[in-house]
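User: Please predict the structure of the protein below. I'd like the answer in structure-token form so I can feed it into my own downstream comparison script.

Assistant: Understood. Taking the following sequence of 160 residues as input:
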Amino acid sequence: MNRRNILSLSAITVFGLAVLPGNAVAQQSDTDKVKAAFDNFHAALSALDIKKMDDVWAHDADVMLINPRDKTGPSIGWDAVRRNWEAVFAFWSELKVTQKDGPHIHINGNVAWADATAAVAGKPKTGDPVTSAPTFESTVLEKRGDRWVFVSHSAWRVPQ
């Protein structure tokens, strides 16, 4: 086999590995996209930016959100989830969310779930002192086209 045939065979093999369903190369790309969705989520929180948060979420009737400050249970449906985020953003004058552990991502087809721990520090608009707490996050994402969006997210403070 000459050098040209070896290079052609190598290129075909690499291409084949990249497009076969369930292979590590394609799976890694989805894992990177899920991580990017988490990064965008934390960036939206830290920026207190509702438009950035809009981009992270599916806008469906069955999306679900539970935040650490929620007192009445989960927000179900995009309208309720968005109102929840608006209330969160209205409460804080400053908020910083930093990923500490994870996300630990599992992907099965067009569904991914991930658990993570984040450090959350914020200054309420009331002028109260800065609060900080480690927070546990559990998230379900769904692949829509070529991107991953949040369909369920719950977060609560880690007991200390």
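That's the full token string. The first helix runs from residue 3 to 19.
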